[in-house]
Amino acid sequence: MASPQDLKYTKEHEWVRMDGDVGTIGITDYAQDALGDIVLLDLPATGTNVSYMDKFGEIESVKAVSELFAPVTGEVVDINSALEDSPELVNDSPFDEGWILRVRLSDPSEVEKLLDANQYDEYLATEVE
Amino acid sequence: MSPSSPHPYIPNTDDDRREMLEAIGVATVDDLFADIPSAFRIDGLGLPAALSEVELIREMAALADRSVVTGNGVTSFLGGGAYHHFIPSTVGHVIGRSEYATAYTPYQPEISQGTLQTMFELQSMTCELMGMDIANGGVYDGASALAEACLMACRVTGRSRIALHSSVNPAYVDVVRTYASGPGLTVDVLANADVTDEYACLAVQHPAFLGDLIEVWSLAEATRAAGALYITSVDPISLGMLTPPGEYGADIAVAEGQSLGWPVNYGGPYLGLFACRQKYVRQMPGRIVGRTTDLDGKTGYVLTLQTREQHIRRERATSNICTSQQLVGLAATVYLATMGKEGLRQVAESCYHKAHYAAQLIDGIDGYTVSVAEPFFKEFTVRCPRSPSEINQSLLERDIIGGLDVSDRIENGMLVCVTEMNTREEIDRLADGLRDASE
Amino acid sequence: MTTTDRTRLDPKTDDIGARLTFDRSRPGRMGVLLPALDVPTAELPDSRFLRHDLRLPELAQNEVIRYFLGLSKLNYNIDSGFYPLGSCTMKYNPKINEDVARLAGFANVHPLQEPKSAQGALRTMSLLQDALSEITGMDAVSLAPAAGAQGELCGILMIKAYLAERGESHRRTVLIPDSAHGTNPATAAMAGFDVVTVPSTSDGNSDIDFLRSALNNGVAAMMLTLPSTLGLFDPNIEQIAAMLHDHGALLYGDGANQNAFLGRARFGDIGFDVVHLNLHKTFSTPHGGGGPGAGPVCVKSHLAPYLPAPIVTGDEGNYRLKTPEHTIGKTMAFHGNFGVLVRALTYIRSLGADGLRAISENAVINANYVLVRLRDAYKLPYDRTCLHEVVLSGSRQKAASGVKTLDIAKRLIDYGFHPPTIYFPLIVDEALMIEPTEAEGKEALDDFCDAMLSIARESEEDPDIVKGAPHTAPLRRLDEATAARKPVLRWTPKAEPTS
Q1: Quick one: average pLDDT of B261-272?
Q2: What residues pair up with C313 in beta bridges, in sequence order?
Q3: Which of B316, C19, C74, C150 has the least C-beta neighbours within 10 A?
Q4: In a domain, C398, yes or no
């Protein structure tokens, strides 16, 4: 499936949706498919500061563990509490109900350096067989 | 003429090998080993030639006959972490089945439900015995279970100091020290309850190595006040009558499961039982089985929470362990299912009463003293009139394997163990033997 | 070969998973009679020491046996068929080994008996130490480790202690190939080392250039599985050993795959400083559904003083246990998994020198035969002669019809085989790791290969039958996601998750 056009992406297969200075972060459809059934997310508390490309959490499927890297720098303002009971939302709706957290960016222009949907799809096509 | 199949365990004949080499497209078998540098290739091993089955059983039986073991008139009062208990015949018949013994780790749950469901049974029975929330499928032995528990306490608390109470078996202390040496954790043995907030845990053995029942409640309180985890190492047979760890505040409870249907086997393989509170489940080492359903909705079991383990998390795993001592765990499961609640209670009480009978008797012998006023379960320490190992030599001549020499801890101390397997007549014989060996 | 030659379970036992011993319990039933107390009763301790409730099942003996026998039928096992689980060496487990290990003179020796009364057990251990020393070409052996993973831990702790003694505690890195078993990095971490991953080259060997760049005076050791988990013997092994030693680092051998070159080459001659063996793999002791095993460590003389305790020393009539001078300590309460050691010695004595060499020969022929029979139907990522196991990839099937390696594995169950190891080693996409062992004859291999070829055809012609497999197993695919999301890890009276 083609990646939604209104989002920004990283090569670590995360996406960011900007709304003012707040970015909503999740993992892409490709990432959820590669991980398989998600069973647990280990996430920072709201108020934590995260930095671009630093590890901020872990996502576990039945048979894999993957580190989550922050696509942007800023303060965590919200986490998706629905994932605690229903981590499968990340599989079922990776770009929407399966969002992971929201970050208020220290510098909203930072998001400009991420990939757009076409660049990300191209990356998937070339890098990932 | 040499037979064309090299051994009964190797079916391929010369003809088979020739056909297969041809299919592979090489002239000789040596071609298949071409990647081994020629300097390292050897012609064979300097080991004896093969034995026929007749010779083999003769040779191995002759080896076995060189040790003195219980049975055929020989009786034993040796414990100290390995125990002669009754093993119902059901156990051997179940674990002897190829279906259990020759399977491996249940990676394919659709064809491994026997292993998985019995492991779930063991987890459940361990929880019930210990009064704890959850248990894993087992680790190597009681000592490594304690070591893993201490490492887990360090992970949970973020602290790097381990406190072991002086009640802990000294062999277990050694094993904890070995495991702690890797990550550079400190291990202290405390004779009291001086747990400070430096410590990740206090580990207590109940009943203690020297047999006495421990004031587990005050130690629990002191440990909790220090923000440390309370670990108890227990005798599972004693739990047929004694208060379970969950009721006196244990955060992690471990035990040597050998007593549950498994022979002493010169020290192994054994079974480490491992249970903890629900909230620590993701810090627990070892295999864990969970219940689920298949596509048709039928109940089944799978290995679960595997992301804790080495094959997935690699250098960040909770432990490198991959075994659950499954077959020993199966023996424990069949044992507990056979004994049932009443059987286990009877065994525990039988140990208790026989040990107290023995203690009274021995305390009455000139030169021997037992602190019979102190509460104990199936083991107690005797102060002997002379070296316990000399006394044991004399007992051995009467077909009695005496108690454990603990004179490094108590002057001329002998740790005597009495189980349901010792008859009154045997206990009386032990007392006679001790009397005659007193000088 | 048909897919209907195995039937679903008898409906009467079909719900066996839903009813545990606890559910089958009836108050008042008992499984065994115990003798009446033959001594006077003693006063019980203070009541707070006593439990008031013990919830264990109450079953008649017949019910116990039927339940566990019923469950046993749901297990695939070596004695029922081919079990090519790569890297696990699922060879035949000789029956005589079981008879010997159960002899009272072995099973009933107490570990704390004084050596004088345990000479048979001690001699058994001594003979095995000597045999493993000869097989590996190492100078000294400790049988203490309970399993391969514990043998690894001992080996790495010995390296740590040895380096510390030489004032080289600054060496904090262990190099591990990307094809390694997960236990290797987990072990290095448990021993307090940092792990650096060594990539494999396109022909499956360790990347020598990377190794050269990674070697510095911070490197303590390299852990190397030989042959690798790809079933390949690294022809540069001599150079690798020399490079490590030139930099003051040690070479650790993971002997999990010793079956591949038994009697044809020795770890010690090749330059390894320490190696662990898995007696439940190469030396035929039963895997038991996941243990017990045993993982002896074998070392060169410079590491001998650090061996885990105890080792057996002495000779005829005077064997005893000894704690090596600078031992890393004990890893179990007693002396190792003795019952497993007895079986391994029985096996070695049964095979003899020539038989042991015949093992590697036949194991390697068998693996290469499977390789040539399957190489056209499945992708062969490393196209060269293998040793004891062959690693294939299901990537072609996945790309063509969406049939994943997991599906191929499940479909093999319908054909009556245990699937190979799958998705390992991690560096092979959609990996299928097949280890036939020497214990299978040509016909068994042909049957297995026929099934694999048939599945490859099905993947093209009727992929759904593969994706829906297994169809004939006691259960269909299980919901592992829900098991991990909402763990139910024990029985409770209402069969509900614990809080």
Answers
A1: 98
A2: C320
A3: C19
A4: yes
How many domains, in total, are found in chain C?
A: 2
Whether B263 and B270 have beta carbons less than 8 Å apart is answered as no
pLDDT for A128: 59
Q: Going from the N-terminus, what domains does chain B have, and what CATH number goes with each?
A: 1-59 (no CATH), 75-87+340-436 (3.90.1150.10), 91-333 (3.40.640.10)
Of residues B148, B399, B294, B288, the one with CA closest to residue C146: B148
Contact yes or no for A60/B304 (Cβ under 8 A): no
**Within an 8 Å CB–CB cutoff, is residue A63 touching chain B?**
yes
Q: Which residues does chain C have within 8 Å of residue B243's beta carbon, measured at their own beta carbons?
A: 48-51
Average pLDDT, chain C: 95
Residue C446 sits in which domain range?
356-482
- Total count of domains within chain A: 1
Residues 312-351 of B with CB under 8 A from A: 312-313, 316
Q: For chain C, how are helix, strand and coil distributed in percent, rounded to 5?
A: 40, 10, 50
Residue B58, chain A, CB below 8 Å: the answer is: no
Mean pLDDT value across chain B: 96
**pLDDT by residue (tens digit) across C361-415?**
999 999 999 999 999 999 999 999 999 999 999 999 999 999 999 999 999 999 9
ipTM over 0.95: yes
A82 lies within 8 A of chain B by CB: no
> The CATH number of the domain where A20 resides is what?
2.40.50.100
Residue B297: CA count within 13 A, CB half-sphere: 0
> Which residues in chain C have Cβ-Cβ distances shorter than 8 Å to B64?
100, 103-106, 120
Over 60: is that where the pLDDT of A75 sits?
yes
Best probe of the C interface among A32, A33, A37, by most C CBs < 10 A, is A37
Between CA C236 and CA C242 the distance in angstroms is 10
